[in-house]
Amino acid sequence: MADAVEIRGLTKYYGKSRGIIDVSFNIEEGEIFGFIGPNGAGKSTTIRVMLALLYPDSGSAKIFGLDCMKQSREIAKRVGYLPSEVFYYEGMKVRELLNYSASFYKKDCSKRIKDLSDRMNLDLNKKIDELSFGNKKKVGIVQGLLHSPDLIILDEPTSGLDPLMQQTFFELIREENKRGAAVLMSSHILGEVQRLCDRVAIIKEGRIIKVEKISTLKENSVRRFKFEVESSIPEDYFAMEGVDGLKVAGNVHSFIYRGDVNRIIKKLSAVELVNLWAEEPDLEEIFLHYYSEGV
């Protein structure tokens, strides 16, 4: 399958301050790709370089085979972008703003604007300066989707949306993806990424530390163990390679384990167990494991 996005060795400094360093990943056509890391890790910088809002110090970025720096106008016609913070001319009505945005694509988007606005419960006759932050976010969503883009870039998309509207938003993104659009979703809310994405890139201090299928991250010998022992054991009994996030509450111990499962089972078999649970960890626990290890 062809790549919708190809990032190779992308590096950007802000003076002497770190932006992103040697960032590389690809997004296949029709894929929903997650980009996760805390605020300041480099997610927005990467996206802004992709959209030619910033110029890199080195490396390359291509969208649908087009150079992001040299062919940004052609790329813009095929990309929908929802920034983490949206700012608009306050005096305009929502309808005026969206019609103005649609004019750049040289096609009639009026029905699409109405349909999306109805789905998002957005009043087209309101003035921008009358809108709450959440409603301004809805405007941004409609603006990013009104031209049926081939690539949708979402930077912290659900901030400001209530839970019901978040559900509607997720449904819209799934529908756009089913239509054939590729999606890049940057977020620090790991549940969102786990819910929507096929693969994920984890970024730490400007560097990619892992690119993997979410299913593989969850299945790659990473398990959450919780068990109760008959009598107390030394708290450092399970202080061994591969054990992370060890918690002890009386006779109940829990931790995340990554490695050869036989090693941990052998260790467990040496103590008197009252009960034992072994489960797949959620994405947040996996993320914290990789982030603390930096592997």
From TrEMBL:
CDD domains associated with the record: ABC_DR_subfamily_A
GO MF terms held by the record: ATP binding; ATP hydrolysis activity
UniProt xrefs under SUPFAM superfamilies: P-loop containing nucleoside triphosphate hydrolases (SSF52540)
Q: Which domain of life is it from?
A: Bacteria
| InterPro entries for the chain | AAA+_ATPase, ABC_transporter-like_ATP-bd, ABC_transporter-like_CS, ABC_transporter_ATP-binding, P-loop_NTPase
Report domain ABC transporter positions: 5-230
Keyword ATP-binding present in the record's keywords: the answer is yes
Q: Which UniProt key words apply to this protein?
A: ATP-binding, Nucleotide-binding, Transport
Any one Pfam family here would be ABC_tran
**Matching Gene3D superfamilies:** P-loop containing nucleotide triphosphate hydrolases (3.40.50.300)
User: Could you say which protein family the record assigns here?
Assistant: Belongs to the ABC transporter superfamily.
Q: What is this protein called?
A: ABC-2 type transport system ATP-binding protein
Q: Which organism is it from?
A: Anaerobium acetethylicum
